[in-house]
């Protein structure tokens, strides 16, 4: 639509270009007329864009809205099946209260938090060290390794979960949250390293040369120059690792089966759905509580993540 | 770096001192590359231990019989290909991936354009709202969709009833269930396309559009001959990335339908889970997920080629 409004500029310019022979006054007024109609057209295009975006926002936010509405309903209200399911008639916080005081849910939450913190720390240490080495120092075969890292990012978790099931079993970590600490970094590290290589490569070489001349060693260069300068990249990579660790579903579903070892994504499903009994109010409240950390983090740091993501995909 | 620092020093230094200097430079270089290798070691261990080794292990596993006592060669692959359920799996995986990616790419393109039309300072909030589906962990938002598709008192059926239509068995009939899984995937993945395209749109120089206008290009021509060629690389990379992720998707189908009704929504990942983990036939499950490999490798090859091509374009 924006393109459409710019097009009108062309004939307006053409008229002005042919103007010299004609009387200046009429041309000026015609140009002014064009300008207001152009302005109006732009305004319409703008409002049209807003309206279309609003439609999309409504469509995209429908499920989260429904989650919120259901989480505020009591079991009785859900099972009575009267009135619009899209609205809550007698809002109550009993689902949230139930979950907060429910020991299993507390365990899932704690497990998720612990696993995520460990995964993020391990992944960031591994990928920052590797990215520094690959982007600045280099060694025999480091180019192959960079390509390999990128290819590893393209390996989806569902490709290798069966051999990993055997491996996790062999090291005795089946049905233990610790297996996730071991496996999640394989999902997070490749992309984090990739992002960090991009950010590190964009730091001017003169900066670390100056530090080398001043007698700094590589660790000091990394800690005092690279990490502070590439902070946006580090934030983006951290958010990526967080997203992976918090939302992963296949590995915990395949490797964990007792409730004291479960994390949020699988715990909610296995605990609140018993046979044919769906406690939808509680399930939705649990979804909301479990989605809260990512939503809060994205609300504050979205710009970094988007920048890192688009840079990661476009940089070579 | 070593060369960079040696140049100014070498100019000042006298000849004999130069000799020892190159000696220590070599020593430094050797030490540097071993430090570089050490920094990459955690990454190498991780990739070898949890990606490369499991990949070969999967190949080995897939050639064993169910009890894992005898070697059956390619028997599992042949068995799968003859099985009607697996033929459904191949068809559905391709249908799911291709339809979802095409829809995501188109919707993402439209939304990115709308977003590009509105003034920059308002974009942030709209983008934030549209990113919500992508921020919520997929396993949790799929639960909400499941609840919305619920046959008895569901959000969608209630709306249909208000307009006088009968209930639709959303997840109970093959083609409707397939459409539902695709819908959820499109809902989840479109924001990713939107931000990638938005970044690409912003990187198209405004002068190109001005030049096109002067040459008398219409809106459609600008889209075809300026915007699309400039975005070609990013579109290709995003589509291929998304194709890999969508093709290997597990969460949506597992939660929404668990492959049902009568395996009519089963995809590679969910089928591998059902056969390998739930029924305990590890070799067959491994063989099933290995079928994804050629398709993923094909996509990965083109992603990588696209990325290197793009890097060359930027360098040129």
Brief account:
By secondary structure, chain A is an all-alpha fold.
Q: What is the count of helical runs of chain A?
A: 15
Structural class of chain A: mainly alpha
Reading off the top of the CATH hierarchy, the class of the largest domain in chain A is best stated as Mainly Alpha
Structural class by secondary-structure content of chain B: mainly alpha
Q: How much strand content do the residues of chain B show?
A: under 5%
Q: From the 3D coordinates, which CATH architecture of the largest domain in chain B would you assign?
A: Orthogonal Bundle
Low-confidence stretches of chain A: 1-24
Chain-averaged pLDDT of chain B: 84
**Helix content, binned percent of chain A:** over 70%
Broad shape of chain B: flat
Kindly report the greatest chain-chain contact and the residue count on each side. Answer: A-B, 110 and 111 residues
Tell me what portion of residues of chain A adopts beta-strand conformation.
under 5%
CATH-defined superfamily of the largest domain in chain B: MetI-like
Gyration radius from CA atoms of chain B, angstroms: 27 Å
Distance between the termini of chain B: 24 Å
Q: What radius of gyration of chain A results from the CA coordinates?
A: 28 Å
CATH topology of the largest domain in chain B: MetI-like fold
Mean pLDDT value of chain A: 83
Task: Please describe what this structure looks like.
The complex is a heterodimer of chains A (316) and B (316). In chain A, helix 6 runs antiparallel to helix 12, helix 7 crosses helix 9 and helix 9 runs parallel beside helix 15. A two-stranded antiparallel ribbon of chain A has the order 1-2. Chain A is mainly α and 316 residues long. The longest helix of chain A is centred in the N-terminal third of the chain and has 48 residues. Chain A starts with a helix and ends with a helix. Chain B has 316 residues and is an all-alpha fold. Chain B has 2 domains: 60 residues, no CATH class; 240 residues, MetI-like fold. Helix content of chain B is 80%, strand content 0%. Chain B is built from 14 helices and no strands. In chain B, helix 4 runs parallel beside helix 8 and helix 12 packs antiparallel against helix 13. The longest helix of chain B is centred in the first third of the chain and has 47 residues. The relative contact order of chain B is 0.11. Chains A and B meet through helix 1, helix 2, helix 3, helix 6 and helix 7 of A and helix 2, helix 4, helix 5, helix 6 and helix 8 of B.
């Amino acid at each position: 639509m924006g393109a459409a409004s710019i097009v009108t500029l062309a004939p307006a310019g053409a008229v002005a270009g042919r103007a010299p022979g004609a009387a200046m006054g009429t041309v000026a007024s015609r140009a002014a007329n064009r300008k207001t109609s152009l302005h109006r057209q732009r305004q319409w295009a703008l409002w049209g864009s807003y309206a279309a975006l609003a439609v999309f926002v409504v469509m995209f936010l429908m499920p989260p809205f429904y989650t919120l509405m259901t989480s505020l309903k009591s079991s009785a209200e859900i099972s009575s099946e009267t009135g619009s399911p899209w609205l809550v008639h007698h809002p109550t916080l009993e689902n949230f209260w139930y979950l907060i005081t429910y020991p299993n849910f507390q365990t899932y939450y704690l497990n998720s938090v612990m696993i995520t913190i460990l995964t993020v720390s391990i992944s960031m240490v591994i990928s920052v060290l590797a990215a520094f080495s690959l982007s600045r120092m280099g060694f025999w075969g480091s180019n192959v390794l960079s390509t390999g890292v990128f290819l590893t990012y393209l390996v989806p978790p569902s490709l290798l979960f069966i051999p990993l099931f055997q491996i996790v079993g062999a090291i005795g970590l089946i049905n233990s949250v610790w297996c996730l600490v071991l496996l999640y970094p394989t999902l997070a590290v490749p992309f984090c390293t990739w992002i960090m290589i991009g950010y590190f490569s964009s730091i001017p070489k003169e900066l670390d040369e100056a530090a080398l001349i001043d007698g700094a060693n590589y660790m000091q260069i990394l800690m005092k120059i690279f990490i502070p300068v590439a902070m946006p990249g580090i934030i983006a990579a951290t958010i990526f690792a967080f997203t992976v660790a918090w939302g992963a579903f296949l590995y915990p579903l395949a490797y964990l089966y007792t409730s004291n070892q479960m994390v949020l994504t699988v715990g909610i499903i296995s605990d609140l759905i018993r046979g044919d009994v769906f406690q939808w109010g509680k399930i939705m409240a649990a979804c909301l509580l479990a989605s809260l950390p990512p939503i809060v983090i994205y609300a504050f740091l979205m710009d970094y993540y988007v920048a890192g993501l688009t840079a990661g995909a476009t940089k070579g | 770096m070593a060369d960079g620092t040696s140049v100014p020093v070498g100019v000042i230094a006298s000849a004999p001192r130069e000799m020892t200097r190159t000696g220590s430079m070599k020593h430094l270089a050797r030490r540097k590359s071993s430090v570089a290798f050490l920094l990459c070691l955690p990454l190498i261990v991780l990739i070898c231990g949890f990606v490369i080794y499991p990949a070969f292990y999967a190949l080995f596993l897939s050639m064993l019989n169910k009890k894992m006592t005898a070697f059956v060669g390619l028997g599992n692959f042949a068995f799968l290909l003859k099985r009607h359920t697996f033929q459904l799996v191949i068809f559905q995986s391709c249908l799911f991936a291709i339809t979802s990616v095409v829809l995501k790419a188109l919707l993402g393109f439209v939304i990115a354009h709308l977003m590009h039309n509105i003034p920059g300072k308002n974009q942030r909030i709209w983008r934030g709202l549209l990113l919500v589906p992508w921020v919520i962990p997929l396993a949790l938002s799929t639960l909400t969709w499941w609840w919305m598709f619920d046959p008895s008192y569901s959000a969608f059926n209630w709306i249909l009833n208000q307009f006088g239509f009968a209930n639709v068995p959303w997840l109970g009939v093959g083609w409707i269930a397939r459409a539902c899984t695709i819908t959820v995937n499109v809902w989840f993945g479109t924001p990713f396309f939107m931000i990638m395209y938005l970044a690409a749109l912003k990187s198209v120089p405004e002068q190109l559009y001005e030049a096109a206008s002067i040459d008398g290009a219409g809106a459609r021509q600008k889209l075809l001959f300026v915007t699309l060629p400039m975005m070609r690389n990013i579109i290709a990379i995003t589509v291929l990335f998304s194709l890999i992720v969508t093709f290997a998707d597990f969460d949506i189908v597992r939660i929404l339908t668990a492959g049902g009704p009568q395996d009519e929504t089963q995809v590679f990942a969910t089928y591998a889970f059902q056969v390998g983990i739930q029924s305990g036939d590890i070799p067959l499950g491994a063989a099933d997920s290995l079928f994804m490999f050629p398709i993923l490798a094909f996509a990965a090859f083109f992603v990588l080629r696209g990325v290197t091509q793009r890097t060359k374009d930027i360098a040129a």
